[in-house]
Design a protein that fits this description.
This protein is of the alpha/beta class. 19% of the residues lie in helices and 13% in strands.
């Protein structure tokens, strides 16, 4: 597929204006935006999620065999497919298999790839350019997905069927209707690429600090005491400097923990808040402080031995941290 599966699939930014009885339309007045909610996902490519977007029933999008014009905002640079009378997609996008055969992109509604696909530094570079991985950033051929994963994560033990190489699978509207509804009603960027041909930490470091400061491995996400301190600072530092309230809502660990303290209270940055409180604050619960101006909502990173959602942190702890040093966190 064009983008390797470890490319972050989406950076979803939702601006929530004041609720009215009528539908709100953007008018260019940034001061009317009260909250920005950022959800950064990973482990899927654009083609995996939205490659079939142009072929969805009722979609406002289309594709082009000659490439999308820069002024055609309804054209999606996704998969090249045909649709039969039953709605089945047959796609022309391919990868070479290790036995010399050709693997075509196929519909795959499975929620999880098992085992996980290769997203090491070398692996992702070879997926982008199999014969010249060092040249991958300048020449991305996307020709090594099948061969890399057959040799590493999803080892080929013999004859494979046409849908065994999960790296070539894609979803349709039937599989992820919520995402397709978002794409149909809001802007979507089909030419958005991840910051680095690498795994979780290098890309999340770019997200937070606009640099991975030389780190290539996801194991590097475990920082020295007090967190990494990039010389240019982080988005968190800029929010604090400009008096903008923010929170990093986590399940097993916040992405900001690579840059700020995340230990047992009180040795924890007051901006790190268990995910369950986000839903209450977003719903306007009178028992909780208001939602901060900027909210980062993190996925479950699958850290072993770490309870999901930070359940040991009680609601009273959130109130206490808000009323003390973290009071600025939830300022309107």
């Amino acid at each position: 597929m064009k983008l390797y599966r470890l490319f972050l699939a989406a950076l979803v930014v939702i601006a929530v204006a004041a609720l009215t009885a009528e539908q709100a339309f953007a008018n260019g007045d940034i001061k009317k935006v009260k909250h920005i909610i950022i959800v950064m996902q990973e482990n899927h490519s654009f083609d995996n999620y939205f490659g079939a977007l142009a072929y969805a029933p009722g979609t406002p999008y289309h594709t082009s065999s000659t490439g999308c014009s820069k002024n055609d905002h309804n054209c999606v640079d996704g998969l090249t497919c045909s649709v039969d009378a039953a709605g089945k997609l047959t796609c022309l996008n391919t990868n070479l298999d290790d036995d010399g055969s050709t693997v075509f992109a196929f519909h795959d509604g499975r929620r999880c790839a098992a085992p996980d696909l290769d997203h090491s530094w070398l692996g992702t570079h070879k997926q982008a350019n199999f014969l010249n991985p060092n040249g991958a950033p300048g020449e991305t051929l996307s020709d090594g997905f099948v061969r890399v994963n057959d040799a590493t994560e999803q080892v080929d033990h013999g004859v494979e069927n046409a849908t065994e190489d999960q790296t070539m699978g894609f979803y349709t509207q039937d599989d992820i209707p919520f995402y397709y509804n978002l794409a149909a009603n809001f802007a979507i960027n089909d030419r958005y690429f991840s910051s680095a041909l690498g795994g979780t930490f290098s890309n999340r470091a770019y997200f937070v600090a606009a640099t991975s400061f030389g780190h290539l491995s996801t194991f590097d996400q475990f920082p020295p005491p007090g967190g990494y301190k990039p010389i240019t600072g982080t988005i968190f530092d800029l929010l604090d400097k400009n008096g903008i309230s923010w929170g990093d809502y986590f399940q097993d660990a916040p992405q900001g923990a690579s840059f700020r303290p995340f230990g047992a209270p009180p040795n924890i940055d007051p901006h790190f808040i268990p995910l369950q409180f986000f839903f209450g604050q977003a719903a306007g619960s009178p028992q909780l402080p208001p939602l901060p101006q900027v909210a980062f909502v993190d996925p479950n990173f699958g850290l072993p031995g770490v309870p999901n959602g930070g359940s040991k942190m009680k609601m009273t702890s959130i109130r206490r941290r808000t009323s003390r040093g973290g009071r600025h966190l939830f300022r309107r």
